[in-house]
C-alpha cells in the first residue's frame, strides 16, 4: 500500500526537494511564484505488512474490542455530561469555536487537522440531546474543562465507531470479499463524515433550480415552498455567521484593553450590566493577584455561557432579511424541527450513519427555536426536499430530476463553449435495437458523449448495504459507460467510412471532421466519491468483463471543471487524460483532488510515474481550489489558482482559441502533453537561444531550431523555429526544416 499527499515521484522513488524559485524570465513574469516547485510522493508499506496472518488477526481483534469498549464508555460519559450540564450551551460553544474558520484579504482558511472536531460530531451530540427526557437534561453552565473533555470524547467516539467494525475474519477472506468490504467502508465513512457535495453557491443554485417547479404545489400543501425553505436557511446561515463574527469582534476589542479595571467595566457593558454590577464583579477578585491574560481568559469563559445567543432564531430578523411572512416562517420551523425529547424512541447506535437531525436541524426549546448547524440543511438538501416532494408528486419529481440534469449539463457546456453544437436525446440503432444517448456535444474536432444519471443514492447503500451499492453502481456508473462505448464504437466506424452514411442526417456536424471521441458520465448525487476512480471496484467482481470506464463525476464537480480551467482546450485535455488514466492508476480522492493534481502536473505521463503502487492517495490536492471557491462564496476575491503552465504556453492557447482553426483543440491537447516542469525548461531555453539567434540571424546557415525531445510513449515531437521580422520571408523554410528535424528517428 502507498500514500501520496501530492502525487509525484522520480524514477528512484525518492522525494524530490522543492527547486529554488530563481529569478523569473521576463516572458514568464506572470507565472505563479510556486510554479518551479513540484509535487512529491511519500511511499510506505502497509503498517501490518510485516505481520503474519495470525498476528494480524490478533491485532485486528484487539483494535475492534478496544473500540467497542470505548464506544460504550464514551457515549455513556457524554450522555452523563448532558444530564449535568446545559446541552444547548455546550453545543453552542463547540459550534462557535470548532466549526468557525477565519477569513481575510488572503481568503478563508481551509482546515484539515486530522483530530479536528467536525460538523458530524456535533450532529451526533445534538441527536443524543434529543433522546433525553426534559427532566434529565442538565442545567449547569459547562466549564472550559467540560467543553474540552466533550470535544475529545466526541472525536474518539467517532473513530471508535469506525474501528469497531473491523473484523479479524477478513484477514483470511478472499480478494473479492475484501474488496467488497472496502467499498462498504468507503460508503460508511463518507456517510459518517463527508458533508459537502459542492461549494455553497453551487448547492444553493442547483437546489433552487431543481426544486422551484414544485413551489406552488408545496405552498398549498404545507404552507411553504422549496424556494422559501432554501431562502430561510440561506438567511439563517448568514445571520448565524454574522452573530458569531460579532462575538469574536467583541472578544478582540476586549483583548486589546490594557487596564484590568477597564476590561471588567467594558465586559459588563457588553453583557448589558451596569457599572454597579462591574464594581461588584471586581470586588470578587484581587486584581493584583491575577494577570491581564488570565483575567481575559476568565471573562471569555464567562462570555461563552452566552454563546447560545448566536444560534437562537429571531423570527423578526429572518422575516425581514429573507422577505418571508410570519406564517411561512412558522411553517418552516414546524416542518424542520424536533421538540426536546423528539428522539426518545430512536436507536442511538444508528446516529452515525442515519441521523434524524440531518433532515431536521432545528430544536424547539422553551426559549425558542435553536439551530447551531443551519448549514446542515444544505448538506442533506437533496434528501430532505426529495422526501417532502415525493409525498405529493413522486413521479413528477423523478422526471424533473432527469430533465434538469440534462438541461444543466447543456448549460454548463455552452457557458464555456458557446459555439458548440449539442444534441439531447439522440436516438440511434444498432442490430435492430434502438438506443438513446442523453447528450452529445461537438467542440471543434472533438465529440463528447455525456450520459446523465439522476438516480438517488438510497439510504441502505449509504449505510453500506452491498446489494444496494452494486445496484446503484450498475445504474449510475456501469450502464452509462456501456451505453457511451456502444455509441463511440458506432461513430468510430462511421467516421472511418469515407462514404456518406446515416449519421449525416442525425448529427449537426460532418462526421468525418470528428477526430476524437470523449465519454463522460455525470450524476446528480455523489457516489461516495468512488466515481472518481472506478479501479476501487475492479476486484469486487461487480464490473462486467472488458468494462471500459470513462470519467464519472457529479454535476457540481462537472461545473467546477468547466469553471476552474480557464482555457477551454484544457477542459478537453483534462477529460481526455482522465479517460487515459481510468483503469491504470487507483487514486484515492475525489474529482476535485484529481483537478488539483491536474493543476500541478497536467496529468502528464512523465509526472505521474506510479509503477508498482497499489494506491495513490491524493486527498487534500483540492485545497487551493477549496480556498478559492469558499472565499468567493464569502465575497472575498483572491487570485484564482491555475494550472502551472508558463506564460508562453498560455499565450499559445489563447491564440489557438481566438483563431479556432480546424482541429485547434487537438493542437492544444498535444501541447498540454508537455509537463509544467518541461514547459519551464523549454521557455528558458527559448529565451536563451533567442539571444544567440539575435546575433547570428544574418548567417545563412545559422542555427535557429529547438527540438523538444518528447516523453517516452508520446506520439508527437515539438520543434520551435526562431526568426526576426527582417528574415520573416524565410518563415516557411524554417518551418519545413523544423518539421524535418522533429521527425528524424532520434527525435520520435
List keywords for this structure.
748 residues, alpha/beta, 5-stranded mixed sheet, 3-stranded mixed sheet, globular
Name the structural class: alpha/beta
Q: Widest sheet: strand order?
A: 6-7-8-9-10
| CA-atom Rg in angstroms | 30 Å
Query: Which residue ranges are poorly predicted, with pLDDT under 50 across at least 5 consecutive positions?
Result: 1-35
Mean pLDDT: 89
Describe the structure.
With 748 residues, the protein is an alpha/beta fold. The chain is built from 26 helices and 14 strands. It has helices at 53-84, 87-98, 119-129, 144-163, 175-193, 200-211, 215-222, 226-255, 260-270, 275-283, 292-304, 315-322, 326-335, 376-379, 381-416, 459-462, 466-496, 503-506, 555-564, 568-581, 591-601, 623-633, 647-659, 664-671, 676-696, 731-742, and strands spanning 103-104, 107-108, 337-339, 362-365, 368-370, 421-430, 433-443, 446-453, 516-523, 552-554, 587-588, 616-617, 705-708, 718-721. A five-stranded mixed sheet has the order 6-7-8-9-10, sandwiched between helices. Strands 3-4-5 form a three-stranded mixed sheet. Helix 9 packs across helix 10 (275-283) and helix 20 (568-581) packs across helix 24. The longest helix has 36 residues, at 381-416. The radius of gyration is 30 Å and the shape is globular.
Give the structure's gist in a few sentences:
The protein has 748 residues and is an alpha/beta fold. It has 26 helices and 14 strands.
SSE order and pairing:
Elements: H1 53-84, H2 87-98, E1 103-104, E2 107-108, H3 119-129, H4 144-163, H5 175-193, H6 200-211, H7 215-222, H8 226-255, H9 260-270, H10 275-283, H11 292-304, H12 315-322, H13 326-335, E3 337-339, E4 362-365, E5 368-370, H14 376-379, H15 381-416, E6 421-430, E7 433-443, E8 446-453, H16 459-462, H17 466-496, H18 503-506, E9 516-523, E10 552-554, H19 555-564, H20 568-581, E11 587-588, H21 591-601, E12 616-617, H22 623-633, H23 647-659, H24 664-671, H25 676-696, E13 705-708, E14 718-721, H26 731-742
Parallel strand pairs: 3-4, 8-9, 9-10, 11-12
Antiparallel strand pairs: 1-2, 4-5, 6-7, 7-8, 13-14
Helix pairs in contact: 1-4, 2-3, 6-8, 6-15, 8-12, 9-10, 9-11, 15-19, 20-24, 23-24
